[in-house]
Amino acid sequence: MINEELIVYIHNQLQNGVSPENLRSILLAQGWSKADTEAALSLAMGSDKEAAPAKSMAGARLASGASAEPSGSHKRLIMGVLIGLLVLLILGGGAWGYTAYREAPAQVLLASLRNVAGLKSVSYDGSVNLAATYEAPQLQFLQLPAEGVSPESILPKREQAVINLNFKGAADNLDPVLPKSRFEGEVNFESPQGILGGSGEVMVRGKKLYFRLLNLTGMGEAFKVLTNKWAAVDLGEVPQENEVDPEKTRALRALFSRSRFVSVTKTFSVENLNGIEAYHYELTFNKEGLKNFYIEASEVVSEETMSAEQRQMLDDIYTNFEFQPAEIWIDKKEKLPLRLRMGLNFNETGVGAYGGKFTGSFTAEFNFKDFNLPLNLTAPAEARPAKEVFKEFINLYLTSKLMQISSSTASSTH
């Protein structure tokens, strides 16, 4: 059935001079079906033809001087102007309201920082990737070159290494008497010497820490004693550092708030991240501002002024790397970080006795969820004391080394 309001709309637009072709394009763009559009156009144009004689008669009466009310087109013009003004007011008010209501990125970041400081539990996962190249003169067994041979004449040695770490975990401090945390990670190290890698788990429940290694690659036989076996450490026996003074915590927050080492350089559209509306920003780090923040924060925590030598060492470190633009996603409602991506490039020269070059890049991604939710963590019942495990490991390691030495000595005597 043809929509009567659609026919009236088309009729009025035709009376205002809009062509059928333009009306057809507008209606199709608005989602009306082609069949309904054509049918409504046909009916509306038919009613216009029937109204034409009446218009001619009205025109004749006007020409003869008969009084008449404002014509339909004049009324439509007045109504069009009023509707246009109303639309402008609505759009203008909406734009003003959006601008006034929209939260400034800097305020969102500060709110996120405050909320993170108040968290009692969180789950996370992510990855860290490091790719590095080292170029330096090749020195066998750290021996100096022969007399009369300049370091520049030694062929450079170029080595590349890649480290990949994938991890996930959670931390729960809802009960201060029984804090709980879990960490699982898998790391792979690739270099010209081969591939090393493995995975492991760490759990903390109260004053007990449990750990075990899994799926080791490229390790010696002695490491098997650490594989797939839980070891336990009593944290009550480990000296604990004093907690940070609340006054220092407040001072660090105030320092962060007034620091200018990070700025929002791009604001993206609000995104849906795993079913949550999130602000998405691009961040840029200012090295000088970050260095000054580190110096002031260190002095707040240690209550000591950083020495000139320490500042020079810090300058040397910061000179050798550049931050890549970072990205952060923040929960629009709760103002908590959901995802962070960051990276840096480093280029260090003058490494080693005869100089060298250490270059590469570092990238990382962190995802956060399950804020302030309890962590269900059960301690492994079969865990052995870590002291026993490491004692067994050291004995096996030393035994394997002695066997290698004996085998090498026996082969050299024949």
Write structural notes for this entry.
The structure is a single chain. The protein has 414 residues and is an alpha+beta fold. Strands 1, 2, 3, 4, 5, 6, 7, 8, 9, 10, 11, 12, 13 and 14 form a 14-stranded mixed β-sheet that branches. A hairpin with a 2-residue loop joins β4 and β5. The chain is elongated and about 110 Å long.
Based on helices, strands and strand pairing, what is the structural class? alpha+beta
Total DSSP E strands: 14
Rounded average pLDDT: 76
Q: Oligomer, anyone? A: single chain
In percent, how helical is the residue content? 25-40%
Topology readout:
Elements: H1 4-15, H2 20-29, H3 34-63, H4 72-101, H5 105-117, E1 121-137, E2 156-172, E3 180-191, E4 194-205, E5 208-217, E6 231-234, H6 246-258, E7 262-267, E8 271-273, E9 276-285, H7 287-302, H8 308-319, E10 321-323, E11 326-331, E12 337-349, E13 357-369, E14 384-385, H9 386-413
Parallel strand pairs: 6-14
Antiparallel strand pairs: 1-2, 1-13, 2-3, 3-4, 4-5, 5-6, 7-9, 8-9, 9-11, 10-12, 11-12, 12-13
Q: Summary?
A:
The chain has 414 residues and is an alpha+beta fold. It has helices spanning 4-15, 20-29, 34-63, 72-101, 105-117, 246-258, 287-302, 308-319, 386-413; strands at residues 121-137, 156-172, 180-191, 194-205, 208-217, 231-234, 262-267, 271-273, 276-285, 321-323, 326-331, 337-349, 357-369, 384-385.
List keywords for this structure.
414 residues, 14 strands, 9 helices, 14-stranded mixed sheet, alpha+beta
